[in-house]
Design brief:
Number of domains: 1
Radius of gyration: 16 Å
Largest sheet: none
Number of strands: 0
Mean pLDDT: 79
Shape: globular
Oligomer: single chain
Helix content: over 70%
Length: about 110
Amino acid sequence: MVAGFASGLAGTVGAVGGPYLGLAYADRPGPVLRATVSLAFAVGVVFSLAAVGVAGEVERAPLQLGVALVPATFAGLWGGRRLADRVDRGMLRPAVLTFAAAAGAFALLRGLL
């Protein structure tokens, strides 16, 4: 719960919410990690879009870009299903830790510059 809260907060403030959940679930089996992070992002996106809509801040260009990226999202889902077993063979934890380290470094650099 704490990781989910930190992820939502950091995702809203600094656009780097994923690493918190990834670190919290890095020692879990691949299906658990992927399902948890996916659900958290899906719920977060729904709440974010609802808040933007209620605030009346929906802009045409980002909406068009989002719609244009829907096919790429489905292509990623399709490819991910085929690669999940390969990634689960010892590569998932190092990948999650590498991503979290890179996101942390990016956030630090962004804050300094």
